[in-house]
Amino acid sequence: MKVNSESILKVNGLTKSVQLEGKTLSILQPVNLQVNAGETLAIIGSSGSGKTTLLSILAGLDLPTSGEVYIKNHPLHQFNEEQRSQVRAEHVGFIFQQFLLINSLTALENVMLPAELANIENPKEKGIELLKLVGLENRLEHFPSQLSGGEQQRVAIARAFISQPDILFADEPTGNLDTKTGKYIADLLFDLNDRLGTTLVLVTHDPKLADRCARKVEMDSGVLTEASITSDSVVNANIANDQNAQEEPNNTTANNEKEEGAVCPT
User: Fold this and answer.
1) pLDDT one-digit tens code per residue, 172-183
2) What value, to the nearest 5°, has the Cα angle with vertex 163 and ends 165 and 257?
3) Among the four 28, 50, 132, 245, which has the fewest Cβ within 10 Å?
4) How far lies 72's CA from each of 22, 86, 92, in Å?
5) What is the C-alpha separation between 111 and 25, in angstroms, rounded?
6) What is the distance, to the nearest Å, from the Cα of residue 26 to the centroid of all Cα atoms in its chain?
7) What's the distance, Cα to Cα, between the start and end of the chain in Å?
8) Percentage of the residues of the chain whose pLDDT score is greater than 90
């Protein structure tokens, strides 16, 4: 996919810290990052390095302690939850490691939900078309408990694309899948991303998945540095300081357990 010079995501001096037992725990050091429309960016790093916290803030699911975050020039750091929800509905897709499908809804209903919340026309027709694209045209009326882990993640991918987001965030999209299924999901994700012209930012422990992105940045103890880049990509991911940071580690154990009571973000 062609990368252009339009900045779709911009971060200036972003930090995140929390209070723990009367002490300040620093999770993210000042982060400066720019992602242009059409880029594919992998955020790599060990568990607890801060990469999932960063992804959540970039997507407007959390707020930074300080600094600025812009998606399509919308200042997420200044917005309340309702305003950030509106930006997500209009511009953002998100794929979670744990799938986060709603157990009481069918595959088709799960895919349709973001479109219905955003008042997008013809959500059923679009949902059916996307489920066909991910090879689940025979699973439209199945509930999450009736689907394998790989099938659930395909539903989650279709759900993420139904609103035709400008930027898609993916948190360990193959982390809960076996190697064969994970490769299939990765192929599907990049194919849809290229076909629909979406900017992709993903967090992964998988070096093969990260290598499929045109650009990589690495998170280490809350400090972000450029890892690699192709000649066609634009660099702007420099961070100062080098203090320690901590974050709850991700569970990347391969399993197909079903997530109970999940809620689809808007």
Assistant:
1) 998 888 888 889
2) 95
3) 132
4) 37, 13, 10
5) 38
6) 22
7) 27
8) 65
**Which of 10-24, 41-55, 240-254 is predicted with the least confidence, judged by mean pLDDT?**
240-254
Contact between 139 and 147 (Cβ < 8 Å): yes
What Å distances lie between residue 7 and 10, 35, 73, 123, 153, CA to CA? 7, 6, 8, 29, 29
Count of beta carbons in the 10 Å neighbourhood of residue 122: 11
Q: Is 243 in contact with 26 (CB distance < 8 Å)? A: yes
Q: Does residue 224 have a pLDDT over 50? A: yes
Q: Which CATH class is domain 7-229?
A: alpha beta
SS (H, E, C) 101-126: CCCCCCHHHHHHHHHHHCCCCCHHHH
Q: Are 6 and 91 in contact (CB under 8 A)?
A: no
- What single string gives the DSSP state of each residue in 142-210? --GGGS-HHHHHHHHHHHHHTT--SEEEEESTTTTS-HHHHHHHHHHHHHHHHHHT-EEEEE-S-HHHH
